[in-house]
């Protein structure tokens, strides 16, 4: 069974998804890292990020492995490297191309298959596109100022003011939610949780209650 957890950056998606997966004893798959490593592959190969064929070539010639949250690219551990603002921007750009998304979505589905079919999968389009039949779909939101404050602890935010972080989040939200291919939006049957005033524990518990209600 797949539990889909979608939402914009800074809502606590990764922490919540990781904790839910741990409690359920299933793998956690952060699909943002698939777009980030695609962005890294494109940058390293010198591909024009706006050229879908060049990006696809870069992805196809990269050897990528994602296991237990650790990401390797051509044998090198890039788990931390892909957390920079530069890579986040590249990820957001390559993620606008339908052909690139198609390739990456196929890879995401195989990852879940290869891991036994049970997983907590987090992203932007998991409930709408990647696993539209997931029995539990969660969409996390939070007020912009809360998201910016939460992001301030991340590597991407090092040395930046909260206003700068808020500006970057807003720009990325705009790219992610206005792109034609699989824009960021809740699935019609998603449970929407506003995490602004909730602790991580409370959000995790709410999702676990919903998951236990399925069986
Ligand atoms: O969650 P994140 O910040 O690591 O995601 C990086 C970028 O990848 C994000 O700006 C949009 C893209 N993305 C996507 O288009 N679809 C997903 N399922 C996950 C991420």
Task: List cofactors, ions and other ligands.
Answer: 2'-deoxycytidine-5'-monophosphate
Please count the beta strands (DSSP E, at least 2 residues each): 8
Corresponding CATH architecture of the largest domain: 3-Layer(aba) Sandwich
Distance between the termini: 11 Å
**How many domains make up the coordinates?**
2
Computed CA radius of gyration, to the nearest angstrom: 16 Å
Which parts are unreliable, with pLDDT below 50 for 5 consecutive residues or more? none
What's the pLDDT, averaged over the residues?
94
Brief summary of the model shown:
By secondary structure, the chain is of the alpha/beta class.
Account of the protein in words:
The chain is α/β, with parallel strands linked by helices and 215 residues long. It has two domains: 1-26 and 119-215, Rossmann fold (3-Layer(aba) Sandwich); 31-117, Rossmann fold (3-Layer(aba) Sandwich), CATH 3.40.50. The chain has helices at residues 13-24, 32-44, 52-60, 85-94, 98-114, 126-130, 144-151, 162-178, 200-214; strands spanning 2-6, 28-30, 64-67, 70-73, 76-77, 119-123, 136-141, 191-194. Strands 2-6-1-7-8 form a five-stranded parallel beta sheet. The N and C termini lie close together (11 Å). The relative contact order is 0.22. The structure holds 2'-deoxycytidine-5'-monophosphate.
């Amino acid at each position: 069974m797949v539990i889909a957890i979608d939402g914009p950056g800074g809502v606590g998606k990764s922490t919540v998804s990781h904790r839910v997966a741990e409690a359920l004893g299933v793998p956690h798959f952060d699909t943002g890292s698939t777009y980030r490593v695609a962005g890294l592959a494109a940058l390293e190969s010198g591909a024009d990020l706006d050229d879908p064929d060049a990006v696809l070539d870069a992805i196809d010639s990269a050897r990528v492995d994602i296991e237990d949250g650790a990401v390797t690219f051509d044998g090198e551990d890039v788990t931390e490297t892909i957390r920079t603002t530069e890579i986040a921007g590249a990820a957001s750009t390559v993620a606008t191309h339908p052909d690139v998304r198609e390739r990456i979505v196929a890879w995401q589905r195989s990852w879940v298959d290869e891991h036994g079919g049970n997983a907590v999968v987090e992203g932007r389009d998991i409930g709408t596109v990647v696993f539209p039949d997931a029995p539990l779909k969660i969409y996390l939101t939070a007020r912009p100022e809360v998201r910016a404050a939460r992001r301030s602890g991340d590597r991407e935010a090092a040395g930046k003011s909260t206003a700068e972080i808020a500006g970057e989040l807003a720009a990325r939200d705009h790219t992610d939610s206005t792109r034609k291919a699989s824009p960021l939006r809740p699935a019609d049957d998603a449970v929407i949780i506003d995490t602004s005033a909730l602790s991580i524990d409370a959000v995790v518990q709410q999702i676990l209650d919903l998951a236990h209600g399925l069986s």
